[in-house]
Write a structure and sequence with these properties.
It is a single chain. By secondary structure, the chain is an alpha+beta fold. The chain has helices spanning about 1-25, 25-30, 30-45, 85-100, 135-150, 150-160, 160-165, 170-190, 195-215, 220-230, 230-235, 240-245, 245-255, 260-275, 285; strands at about 65-70, 75-80, 105, 125-130. It has a four-stranded mixed beta sheet, with helices on one face. The protein is extended.
């Protein structure tokens, strides 16, 4: 598969060079190096009769494509599926390739019946596959990777000034940016939802995710989610909060009480003392 990809890439490059040469041939006559390259390299590569530019063929339902599907540890497997393969068929192919009997989920696929999975992936997007019980831990695993890259000295550089020490705090900056991303993600998802019932479901889902983050001792994402839900753009949705079940309102009130800044954030300090390491701390408060 890698060999086919390499050959295909080389052919595309050579094809582009030939097209450029045909369009701007008058410029090549003034460049002996470029003219020599075309004569010695391109002509030799296309001497087998492939010099004719092939017409682009339309994609058909029965055509096969290669898909890279990544696992939670960022390794990937390559599967061959039909263009019109559904999400369920892709999951089945991944399970067969990995030899897994667990129920897998695909990130970026909302429904198992979605067709043409490959066309739904963005330019820089990736398909991730993981067992259902690992889905809640993926956020913490990613946050832990960012947090473990932060050196203790970066906290000093950030506090007393990077210009004073002439040192970078790039790892700390990435971790702080992660907090802002999660917080704005919550606000964006809720505000973009136009249906009342779906907004209620979103609030319930974010409260569940926050509970899992606290269970995994990921306080950074836990507070990012709670602060996102406390954002005025979300908290002003009175009808949505009224429809939220009382059980979830109680959970949210408990989580929000941990943000109480009184007595030097005593509620947060008590919570941290009850947790056993390793812990991903609430970094903005730690820097404060």
């Amino acid at each position: 598969e890698r060999l086919e990809h390499t050959v295909s890439t080389k052919r595309k490059v050579l094809t582009l060079a030939l097209r450029w040469a045909a369009t701007h041939s008058y410029l090549l006559q003034e460049e002996p190096i470029a003219l020599s390259f075309l004569e010695k390299t391109l002509i030799r590569q296309f001497s087998n009769g492939e010099e004719r530019l092939q017409k682009k063929q339309p994609i058909r339902n029965q055509d096969d494509i290669l898909l890279k599907v990544y696992c939670s540890d960022h390794t990937y497997t390559t599967i061959r599926v039909a263009v019109a393969a559904t999400g369920r068929e892709v999951i089945r192919a991944v399970g067969d390739k990995l030899g897994s009997n667990e129920e897998l989920l695909l990130k970026q696929i909302l429904k198992p019946n979605d067709v043409s999975v490959f066309s739904a992936v963005g330019i820089n997007g990736r398909l991730f596959s993981c067992p259902r019980e690992q889905l809640n831990a993926l956020m913490t695993l990613y946050d832990w990777e960012l947090f473990s890259c932060v050196h203790e000295h970066e906290l000093l550089y950030h506090t007393f000034g990077r210009t004073t020490f002439r040192r970078t705090t790039a790892n700390l900056d990435l971790f702080l940016r992660r907090f802002n991303q999660v917080q704005l993600w919550v606000v964006t998802e809720v505000c973009l939802c136009s249906q009342l019932s779906k907004r209620v479901q979103l609030l319930k889902k974010f409260i569940k995710i926050a509970a899992h983050c606290r269970e995994f001792r990921n306080l950074n994402s836990f507070f990012a989610i709670i602060m996102g839900m406390s954002n005025p753009a979300v908290s002003r949705l009175s009808q949505t909060w009224e429809k939220l079940p009382s059980k979830f309102k109680k959970f949210y009130a408990e989580f929000e009480s941990m943000m109480d800044p009184s007595r030097n954030h005593r509620a947060y300090r008590l919570t941290v003392t009850k947790l056993e390491p390793p812990i991903i701390p609430f970094m903005p408060l730690l820097l404060k």
